[in-house]
C-alpha cells in the first residue's frame, strides 16, 4: 500500500490539553490506513495559519486537532494555497463548543474516533466564507447579541445546564443588549432595521444557542443562511421573538432567515464582528461572500 503524506497540526491548549487522550491511538489508525503522519504543535496564536499555508500544497492531506478557532486558522491557511494544489482536510474536534463538529456529527474530544472517521471517508466539499482582506471563516461571521454568550457563560453553568445556560445568559441580557441600525443587501433584496443580531452562517449550530434543521442547511450549495433579529422594543416584542425562535419560524416579524451567496452590511458607524467565535474586526461596511466548495473535508 502506497503511503500518503499527512501533516497533523495540534493545538496543545485546546480543550485543556485533551489531545493527550487518544493522540497515540489516532496516529496508529492513520498510519495503518496508509498515511505517513508528521506531527507539529502550535506555539502561538496564528501559527496554524502559517503551517497550513506551508503544508497545504506539499502534503497529500492535512488534519488538525483543536477547537473551531484552530480549524478556522487552518482553513485560512489552506485558502492561500492554489485550489488545484489544496490538500483535503480532516478535523479532530477538541473543546466545549465545537459548532462545526456538531454540524458534521463528528466525535468530540476523541481523536482516535475522529481518525477512524477520517480514513473511512471520501472527501466532501465545504463552502468557506470570505470577509475581504484575506479573512475567511468556516461557519459564522456575526455581529450583535449572543456572539459572545458561549464564551462568557461560566464553565460550571455549561456543565450543569448545557445549552440552556446559553439561552438563560442571552435572556438575562435582553434588556441591555446593544442594537444597530443596519442596511442589509443580499442577492437583490434590501432590508433596513434596528437589529440586535446579524449572522452569516454555514452551520446547523451557532454557539450552542441557535439550532437549524439539518435538512435546511447544505454545506456545499454556495449559499449562506443569513439570520436577522430585530431589537425588541417592549415586552410584547420580546415574547414574539422568543415564540418565533422556539417555533423555528424563519420568516417572522422579529426573527428571519434568508439564503444568499453574498451579503453586505452597512452601519452608521463601525460595528464589531465575531469570526468563528473569535474577534473578527469592526466595520461600517462589509461584504461577505461565499467561496463555494473551496475546501475538501475528510469526515
From TrEMBL:
InterPro entries in the cross-refs: ATP-NAD_kinase_N (IPR017438), Diacylglycerol/lipid_kinase (IPR005218), Diacylglycerol_kinase_cat_dom (IPR001206), Lipid_Phosphate_FormReg (IPR050187), NAD/diacylglycerol_kinase_sf (IPR016064)
Family under the similarity heading: Belongs to the diacylglycerol/lipid kinase family.
One GO biological process term: phospholipid biosynthetic process
Keyword entries, A-Z: Kinase, Transferase
Segments forming domain DAGKc: 1-136
Protein name: Diacylglycerol kinase family lipid kinase
PANTHER family, per database record: SPHINGOSINE KINASE (PTHR12358), SPHINGOSINE KINASE RELATED PROTEIN (PTHR12358:SF54)
PROSITE patterns according to UniProt: DAGK
Superkingdom, natural source: Bacteria
Cofactor(s), names only, from the UniProt record: Mg(2+)
Gene Ontology molecular functions: ATP binding; kinase activity
Pfam family, one: DAGK_cat
Keyword Repeat: no
Amino acid at each position: 500500500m502506497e503511503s500518503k503524506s499527512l501533516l497533523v497540526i495540534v493545538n496543545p491548549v485546546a480543550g485543556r490539553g485533551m489531545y493527550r487522550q487518544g493522540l497515540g491511538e489516532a496516529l496508529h489508525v492513520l498510519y495503518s490506513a496508509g498515511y505517513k503522519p508528521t506531527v507539529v504543535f502550535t506555539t502561538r496564536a496564528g501559527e496554524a495559519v502559517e503551517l497550513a499555508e506551508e503544508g497545504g500544497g506539499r502534503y497529500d492531506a492535512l488534519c488538525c486537532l483543536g477547537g473551531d478557532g484552530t480549524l478556522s486558522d487552518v482553513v485560512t491557511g489552506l485558502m492561500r494555497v492554489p485550489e488545484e494544489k489544496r490538500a483535503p482536510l480532516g478535523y479532530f474536534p477538541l473543546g466545549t463548543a465545537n459548532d462545526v463538529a456538531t454540524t458534521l456529527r463528528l466525535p468530540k474530544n476523541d481523536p482516535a474516533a475522529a481518525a477512524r472517521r477520517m480514513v473511512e471517508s471520501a472527501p466532501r466539499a465545504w463552502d468557506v466564507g470570505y470577509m475581504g482582506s484575506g479573512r475567511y471563516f468556516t461557519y459564522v461571521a456575526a455581529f450583535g447579541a449572543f456572539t459572545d454568550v458561549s464564551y462568557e457563560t461560566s464553565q460550571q453553568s455549561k456543565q450543569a445546564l448545557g445549552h440552556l445556560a446559553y439561552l438563560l445568559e442571552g435572556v438575562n441580557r435582553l434588556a441591555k443588549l446593544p442594537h444597530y441600525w443596519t442596511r442589509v443587501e443580499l442577492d437583490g433584496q434590501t432590508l433596513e432595521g434596528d437589529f440586535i443580531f446579524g449572522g452569516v452562517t454555514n452551520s446547523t449550530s451557532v454557539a450552542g444557542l441557535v439550532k437549524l434543521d439539518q435538512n435546511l442547511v447544505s454545506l456545499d450549495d454556495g449559499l449562506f443562511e443569513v439570520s436577522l433579529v430585530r431589537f425588541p422594543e417592549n415586552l410584547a416584542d420580546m415574547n414574539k421573538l422568543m415564540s418565533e425562535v422556539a417555533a423555528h419560524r424563519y420568516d417572522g416579524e422579529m426573527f428571519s432567515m434568508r439564503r444568499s451567496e453574498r451579503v453586505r452590511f452597512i452601519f452608521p458607524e463601525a460595528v464589531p464582528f465575531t469570526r468563528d467565535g473569535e474577534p473578527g474586526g469592526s466595520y461600517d461596511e462589509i461584504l461577505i461572500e461565499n467561496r463555494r466548495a473551496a475546501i475538501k473535508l475528510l469526515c
